[in-house]
Amino acid sequence: TGIIKGTRWPEDKGEIMLASHTDTVFPEGTDLTVCKEGDTYFCPSIGDDTRGVAELVSIAESMVSAGIRPEKTIVFCANVCEEGLGNLKGIRHIFKTRTNIEAFVSIDDGTTEKIIYGATGSLRYEIRFTGPGGHSFGAFGIPNPIHAMGRAIAKISRFTVPKHPKTTFNVGVVSGGTTVNTIPSMASMLVDLRSGNENALNRLADMLKRAVSEAAEEENIRWNGEAFWKNSPDNFPQVTAEFIEKGNRPGGCQTSDALIVQAAEAAVRAVGMEPALSDEGSTDSNIPISL
Q1: Axis-axis angle for helices 145-157, 198-223 (nearest 10)
Q2: Under DSSP, is residue 173 helix (H, G, I), strand (E, B) or coil?
Q3: Element containing residue 123 per DSSP (H, E)
Q4: pLDDT, position 165
Q5: CB 116 within 8 A of CB 175
Q6: Is a pLDDT exceeding 70 seen at residue 225?
Q7: Phi and psi of 286, rounded to 5°?
Q8: pLDDT in tens, 7-51
């Protein structure tokens, strides 16, 4: 963080925070060289959020060099854990440790005129299917965790969700197994659920949990009692499913005529652009908006 103290300080200890996140998402080992073509710079994740961090520093440098003193203290914050499974830990920490923040702006997204003033909530889960595993021929007839996960994914793909508020689901990563001739002992998937409405998001989470439970049960029923299984039915192996919460981004809303939104619109028009308002987005601003 860096601070430009306001002219009202210390009588007025209120702070306005400008933030950009330093974490980006691209494969490990990616060439990070910045290249210039014409008047445009290119590098991995420059739009999300390398560009925002550069803007954050540029704003601070410009204010200092021009001798601009704001009335309110401005805090410039470069934070981590916005992307992926970071679960907004950086901004959560900021709002737990700084008590004087009165306004917050996240510099994010690659579109200058875009103003996101709503907060789309999200839930992220790792779901693990486990079983005894065994040889694909010798142990054939026992429940298969990957087959159970496949059943679950098929059910998820048939979910019906509302368009308003926009509600979405996605199975983004699947893993498990060791060799082609081995019934795996474990399989897992990462699932992302989003909605602008908390009730809709919670209903979707309930649908997911039912689908996973039913999938594991169906896989067990499919093989229970098969002649391939030589031991007592009482000892028949089972596939089980475990939910691990990996992320919980709170949602929220504010009106388009809120002072901070009007200020953002005026700023966009001041540089010759037309504001594009959006009440849907998942950013660091989810935390202050939800508060």
Answers
A1: 140
A2: strand
A3: strand 121-130
A4: 86
A5: no
A6: no
A7: -55, -40
A8: 999 999 999 999 999 998 888 899 989 999 999 989 888 889 989
